[in-house]
Structure prediction request, 212 residues.
Amino acid sequence: MMSLVRLLRHVGLATACALLSACATWSPRIDLPSRTLPVQWPERAAALAKWDRYSLRARVSAVRGDEVVTARLVWSQNGALSRLNLTSPLGIGGLDMTVTEDIEQRLNEALGFEVPVKSLRYWLLGVPDPRLPVSGLSPMDEWDLGLPRSFQQQGWQIGLQRYSSVPGTSLRMPSLLEMRHEAVQLKIFIESWGTTTLGTSSVRASTRGGAK
Prediction:
């Protein structure tokens, strides 16, 4: 079984398409389906859960015990089809896969722990997977603007540490996620949504119920 470090180091050395049987030419960015979202949480969550076409680019940091690995991520959602591309920070080599049940199982076997990739398409948007139970959803108040700070799902704690404005829209989208599961910690620093690089205006989640 391939460890987390071995898998992502392998990403930096050679193309991992053979491992996942999912090689293809990388698709272009997919723009966001809306330039606005409801302010209140129930309506915002319902709207985002219906987003089935979007893309993002991010930096990923994975920590498991003494193992620390970084990579660059491009995520493309097109209907029910999730596709992700991981490369080393220098862009050498990469892992390019379309998510299926078989691929997700083989990826988790290689990592040595479960990453619910099918739910990740929702978590990246800052909402729980609407198909599954959720707990620990942080309370909202007038300072949060309908933006949750954290929730728990499938044994993972998902922390939405920061939101940033998307230029040319009224959207505030997640720009920093911290996900924890037992000894595993993943940080996702989102740099662009769709075809747009994130702006500098941000809302940082507060553990005391407000945004700074």
Remarks:
- The longest helix spans residues 101-111.
- The beta strands are 53-64, 67-78, 81-87, 94-98, 150-153, 156-165, 172-181, 184-193, 196-197, 202-204.
- The chain has one domain: 4-25+35-204.
